[in-house]
Amino acid sequence: YIQSGNVAFNAAGRTRAQAAVIRDAVLKSHGVDAHVILMEANALEAAVANNPYPSNEGKALHFFFLDRAAANPKLERLNELKSPTESFQLIDKVFYLHAPEGIGRSKLAANIEKCLGVPVTARNGNTVAKLLQMVNDP
After folding, report:
1. Which one in 3, 57, 97, 111 has a CA-CA gap of 20 to 30 Å to 88?
2. Cβ-count burial of 19 within 10 angstroms (0-12 exposed, 13-18 middle, 19+ buried)?
């Protein structure tokens, strides 16, 4: 989908081996060693359904999808880093960030992966909505 680094496809199951094959193909074809996170449609649907900030506009809301559950997230450190206008919640394998002033200069956004201790990929609410539409209307 656009230049967001997202692909929607039909496949049986979701395995780390499939992610490794995709990662190797991207490296070979584009020279980029990108971490690949695979999600099933029901996980994306659950992320949207569990969104604690449903009334906020898409560009202010960011979904950080975790590669796996965070064993020891440093949420107190993220609380120290957040600006007065930012708010966040970690629900299952999704870190939700509401940042009405954007995330370009956000100290919190810059430290999410480090503080959660797992690889993440982030998308704004508009992109997540479009991806959900793509997987539901192939």
Report:
1. 3
2. middle
